[in-house]
Amino acid sequence: MAGRGALLERLKIKREESSNEERPGDGGTTSRPVPVGRAQLLRRLNVQNQAAAAPTGGLQPIAPERGAGCGRAQLWKNMTQRPGEGALRYPEIKSQETPVRTPATHGQSSQPDVANLQSQLDSMSLQKKRCESVIRSGVEGQTFTAAVNYIRLISKENAQIYEYFVGFTPEIDSRRFRFIMLKQHAEALQFVGNAFDGAKLYLRHKLPLQENVYECSHPSDNSVVQMKIIYKNQMKMSEAMHWCGILFRRVLDSLNLTQIGRNFYDMETSTPVPQYNLEILPGFVTAMAEYEGGIMVQVDVSHKVLRRANALEAMINIYKRFPKDQVQEQIKKELLGQVVMTRYNNKTYRIDDIDFSLNPNDTFQKRDGSSCSYKQHLRDQYQVRIVDEKQPLLVHRPKKKKRGQENITETIILVPEVCSLTGITDAMKNDFRIMKDISGFTRVKPVDRIGRLDGFIQRINNCQNAKKNIRRLGVKAGHSTITNGRPKLWARKNFGWSWKIGYNWR
Q1: For the chain, what is the total number of helices (H) and then of strands (E)?
Q2: pLDDT tens figures, 122-134
Q3: Which of 282, 230, 227 is nearest to 257 (CA)?
Q4: DSSP 438-501
Q5: Cβ neighbours of residue 257 under 8 Å, at least 6 residues apart?
């Protein structure tokens, strides 16, 4: 054998001879193989550490016994031993040890430990630590002014809001009754600058007790109801956006804006489109949040398209176009899923069904147990007179969830004669001319948009009721949408040999 094979064979024989010389043994007994590689290195290091830690007096270090850990296990053992105990001086791994509490012996008091624990519990808080807002406006570049669709609300520093939970015994499900009973103690609660949503009460002052109990009179039967107002939390105004949103809705109500869905519209300044029998309502979309400059209200222009034709006229039009045996089917096909708005209360409803067996002269049972016809109810409550007494009625089924119960489906009956259709039909959407004419009203240019927002701010500042509600918030509305913009930074491009070229964005 020649070449690499012979060389490897000679190295193998040489290694076996050297290992036989170093392997201890007597009487032909086979001993444990000597470890090689990392294990051999760790073994030698362990022997050296034991020799260094052994007391002086000529004693020799003892080799590790059979079965001792080697490899990674021995390395971990050496690393976790404390310095000075014969281990390698690796960085010590610190771990949090749970303190062991020794029970108090007879005659000793554990009162100091209880007091210490109580002080620690008092200092604990589950509230998230609030950081002050950082204004990142930059320092380089050229500043510019811009018009934004935000209204700044200037508030006092360190203004506090107190949150309370309001409960009733026995339980009161009607939200309207909750408001009535709370207002019975308006003088004791100093009912100014607060908001109530049916369960949570926000006050700008703190009540004297953590749990305040009042007796109220039930609006329907004058029975005694116990009302508890329990303190929950103290927060800054910037943290009580729910409270600010409730009071800002009162500001919009004082401007004679009508809430349709989530947005507010001005019914008095609607724009008719007679060629298509449409009506366009201008309005605003609002959202309140905290930004770098404080609390701001985001305001944007919105529009809602109404059809001048009511649901009854749409039914009559279908009745003229189809045979009698197909009328009901076509009416359901075209009207189911449509959203209508009742003019007497400006609320929107979705048509879930059409009941052809009912008419306005049919009766229903009121909450007090008496019976009343739909026609009579509209005339007594809203001064609305119904002309067609044979028209079918619309059905709306909202889902309301009560506390501790599943969704409860109620039924609301609507008279088509007083329900205005909203939105546009699919045929109108496919007509290019109609959409072009509608977009002339709904697509507002930036300059006109800012003009409407400035008019909205001026309208708030000129309305006494709106200013009164703004003062309840403890803030003052800004007078302009103009704000200082961010600096216009110079851009740099890096080339080879550290060349830099700066240019400004246009």
Answers
A1: 14, 26
A2: 665 555 555 555 5
A3: 282
A4: HHHHH---HHHHHHHHHHHHHHHHH-HHHHHHHHHTTEEE-S-SEEE---BPEEEEE-GGG-EE
A5: 264, 265, 266, 283, 284
Report whether 327 contacts 317 (CB < 8 A): no
Residues 298, 231: Cα–Cα separation, whole Å: 31
Q: Cα torsion for 144, 145, 148, 154, to the nearest 10°?
A: 120
For the stretch 49-86, pLDDT in tens is: 777 665 554 444 444 444 455 566 666 666 655 555 44
Beta bridge partners of 365: 371
Residues 165/499, Cβ–Cβ less than 8 Å? no
**Number of neighbours of residue 32 by Cβ within 10 angstroms:** 10
Which tokens belong to 90?
């690796």
- Provide the token pair at 251: 């500001």
The whole-angstrom separation of Cα 409 and Cα 295 is 39
Distances 321 to 178, 328, 337, 412, 454 between C-alpha atoms, Å: 50, 12, 21, 29, 49
321 versus 77: the higher-pLDDT residue is 321
Rounded CA-CA distance 39/104 in Å is 49
Contact present, 286 and 297 (Cβ < 8 Å): yes
* pTM reported for the whole predicted model: 0.56
Residues 6+ apart with CB under 8 A from 335: 311, 314, 315, 351, 354, 394
Q: At what angle do helices 72-80 and 38-53 cross, to 10 degrees?
A: 30
Please give the Cα distance from 10 to 18 (Å, whole number). 12
End-to-end CA, the chain? 82
* Residue 171 amino acid letter: E
**pLDDT for 374:** 92
Residues 6+ apart with CB under 8 A from 95: none
Q: How confident is the model at residue 501 (pLDDT cuts 50, 70, 90)?
A: low
* Residue 46, pLDDT score: 81
